């Protein structure tokens, strides 16, 4: 395929005319060697150049901006510049390979700075930008602030917000190209389990995380997803499909609802509308291909699509022994089709989907073993799938207003069949007893819209509504070892709506003071739950480097859908039916969880490449679902791992408190070097129905991350990148196990009155990353190796009961551990 590259040969073409006599059929070995050597010298001496292009639009109206001045810098050296045309398009041609910073300026608008732009040989760089109008009209450009590196794209956010890029997810050691694992490096965020990407935000349960894609709230976008969770072992999101996106850790703007902990607001990029480009990758986490290009060059329509399949499953199909019979099978794909329309309109179609399954048959084992996804005493057949497809239409109605409407449908499903393995002496298989089977499906149809209106250079409004129609199907039966009977725990199909209207204003008093405010409302037709949530924010720009900000608001969230339909048990453990013979669902009327957020933030851009940020926060949770009977249970402790939860009758009477202080010191990638140091001191407590104030499961009290990266250029076309990440954190809280009760139940039983009175040892992990990149005229090759837990530190994940401990003199309580040393490789080629 053709590439628009400029090359300048510095070696004479005469070097290729090395004489071979026509009468000879072959040149001798010395001649061949010299020919190949000179050919390679010539190939590597070509000066390869590439194009940077894109579009600049007004932040509120999305209208293209004319005469914006763009300047491209390499470190502090000006390389070239350009000006946007009448539609806001710009082009910077003949750019040598390397890393750059692009600055955009226009009179009356705040300047925009985009750093860390990597120019490779095989792909054009398409970079779109949004500019915010200044509160004070100026006759000349005076840089007093503007968008800095790392600042969030959402103009209504004042605190606890961070933009992240594809380059960051590739650059950070241990992130594996996963947005969730990358976000765990940020202050106030940590992972719950090495083998999964669930994230704990400021001590909150991972259940409180909201995933949004292309303006649509989506189901859990991870493989092997348990119903009600927001994470998993492998992400379906391919970072090659994403453009710069936003991540929030508290006091969200009013457009975000049904989440109380964190928000991922992900955006897909458009494909290249001028050139066809392909990326192929082989790696431990998957074998994939990504393609993009123009559908119509005249209209600017484009396509972007990717597909990935489990590499381990491919190896297994090829009869390559990978050391386990429990092979994770998964595949996923995503796409975006974009069609620019006349008069400022735009129509796009997008989709994301994936399916996964694994069969863990420990009954076939001849010696004890532990699989990544299961325990060592149960046969488990598990699978899950997620799919999202939608269309979006947007249009700039004028130079001051912008409208967008989105239609989408999604489905998330999971199933499991499970049998208990009983063994005798010498690990001999005694019996295999089926004990569980379930299938949960959530279908959702969404109709969302919003309007941006800029009344003046000081006042703007965003208002809209999210409308979701849910259809939840639940089926579940479990075997009771005490009564020797199967019991039906779920058997229901329900349809209901969740409505979320919102409106938010932004007012710039002057260039120093900015105020935001809004209202978000939620109404759930399933049980009549409703909430009205005010949101407020303020930012004061002390000078061009320093700022103070305040954010506060009320946030609400519904329960994981399957919890509403759990059947009620009587004192004998039987599931209760009403007069009509229908099962009685005792959690059907449980209302929203509510959380009040207050955040104070200080930012200091010490220099163009060095940033310090401090935040302190307080969150008060109330109406938290807890059990009606006296117990330590709280929804605040759920949502991490591969297990569901089965509470007794729930009531909205629980409370919780999270508070802490966070520090980020970050040197953005410049002069071939970056680092980021984040630290958090926090406390996270809750109160159950027994009235006791306890630590939450996730209350480790502190977390520290240090990331460092360095690039080494070998000539103009080869780069070696080294990275390192060090993580230290307080251990999660845990509960002593009732050994005698566990023996009777043939399952783990905890001492409820001593909930979270113990703490696991502190967590420590060292990750490393090495990449080699080679640019040639038509291809960019990249080889990478992620080394997870380089020191093979034995971090304890939990304590559990070992059913195989038939010898009563043996302690049946065992530790389960986080991931040990794990090398993850990949090879990628762009062309």
What does this 3D model show about the protein?
- By secondary structure, this protein is mainly beta.
- The chain is built from five helices and 44 strands.
- The chain has a 22-stranded antiparallel barrel.
- A hairpin with a 2-residue loop joins β2 and β3.
- Mean pLDDT is 87; it is low at 1-27, 32-44 and 139-146.
Topology:
Layout: H1 29-45, E1 49-58, E2 69-74, E3 77-83, E4 89-96, E5 98-105, E6 112-119, E7 125-126, E8 129-131, E9 161-164, H2 166-171, H3 179-183, E10 189-191, E11 199-201, E12 209-213, E13 216-217, E14 222-223, E15 234-235, E16 245-248, E17 262-266, E18 277-283, E19 286-296, E20 301-309, H4 311-317, E21 329-340, E22 345-360, E23 378-398, E24 401-423, E25 429-454, E26 459-480, E27 485-508, E28 513-524, E29 529-541, E30 546-557, E31 593-607, E32 610-627, E33 650-670, E34 673-687, E35 693-695, E36 702-714, E37 718-729, E38 733-734, H5 739-745, E39 758-759, E40 763-775, E41 780-788, E42 796-801, E43 813-817, E44 822-830
Parallel strand pairs: 1-7, 1-8, 12-17
Antiparallel strand pairs: 1-4, 2-3, 2-5, 5-6, 9-16, 10-11, 12-13, 14-15, 16-17, 18-19, 18-44, 19-20, 20-21, 21-22, 22-23, 23-24, 24-25, 25-26, 26-27, 27-28, 28-29, 29-30, 30-31, 31-32, 32-33, 33-34, 34-35, 34-36, 36-37, 37-40, 38-39, 40-41, 41-44, 42-43
